[in-house]
Write a structure and sequence with these properties.
8% of the residues lie in helices and 49% in strands. The protein is mainly beta and 179 residues long. The strands form three sheets. It has a nine-stranded antiparallel β-sheet. Strands 3-4 form a two-stranded antiparallel ribbon.
C-alpha cells in the first residue's frame, strides 16, 4: 500500500510505501498446532526522484526499513574457523547505519527510447562483501531501449563474489495497441 506525489513541471516525484502488510493465507507446512505461518518481511520505504532540468540525468534516493533503525546482524563470515561457534554481532557506527537505510541511483536518459541506470545499496554491499576479495555486491547496472511498441530492458547485480544476477524484461502498454 502506498501513496505517490508528482510535480511533472518540476521533474520531481516521491512515494511512500508500506510493503508486506498482511499475512499468509496458507502456511508452508502443518505442525502439531496446525498450519505454521511465517511472518512477512514488513518494510516502510520512502523514495524521491528528480530529473535535472537541462541535463539528461535523473537522481533517485530511496530510504528503506524506516520502521527499524537497528540493522545489526550476526556476522558469520569466519564461523567455520571458530570451533566454539561464537556468533559475532556486527557493531555499526551511526553514519554507517544511516547509510545502510539508503539506496542511491542515477539514470541517464538521452531520449525517449533509451536509458542507462546505475545504483548502489550500501546495506547489501556491507553485508555481502567478503574480506580479501573485491566485490561489486550492492551495485546494480542496467539499461533499456524502446523498439516500436515494446520496451526491452536488461540489468545485472552481484550478490556475492563470482555470482551475478542477470535480469531481462520485455514490456508494453496495452494502450499502444488501441484495442
Amino acid at each position: 500500500m502506498g501513496v505517490s506525489y508528482q510535480r511533472p513541471e518540476k521533474f520531481f516525484s516521491a512515494g511512500l510505501v508500506f510493503r508486506n502488510i498482511g499475512t499468509q493465507f496458507k502456511g508452508y507446512y502443518s505442525g502439531v498446532d496446525g498450519q505454521h505461518f511465517e511472518p512477512l518481511p514488513f518494510d516502510i520505504q520512502l523514495g524521491a526522484s528528480y530529473k535535472l532540468e537541462h541535463a539528461p540525468f535523473r537522481i533517485s534516493l530511496t530510504m528503506h526499513n524506516l520502521h527499524k533503525w537497528n540493522l545489526n546482524y550476526i556476522d558469520n563470515e569466519n564461523s567455520m574457523m571458530d570451533f566454539e561457534r561464537q556468533d559475532y554481532i556486527s557493531k555499526i557506527s551511526f553514519a554507517d547505519m544511516a547509510f545502510r537505510h539508503t539506496i542511491i541511483g542515477v539514470e541517464f536518459v538521452p531520449g525517449k527510447n533509451l536509458y542507462l541506470v546505475g545504483s548502489y545499496n550500501h546495506r547489501r554491499h556491507q553485508e555481502l562483501k567478503m574480506s580479501g576479495f573485491k566485490s561489486m555486491a550492492g551495485f546494480s547496472f542496467g539499461g533499456g531501449v524502446r523498439i516500436s511498441k515494446f520496451q526491452v530492458g536488461f540489468g545485472v547485480s552481484q550478490f556475492q563474489v563470482g555470482n551475478s544476477a542477470y535480469l531481462f524484461s520485455i514490456s508494453t502498454s496495452l494502450n499502444e495497441f488501441k484495442l
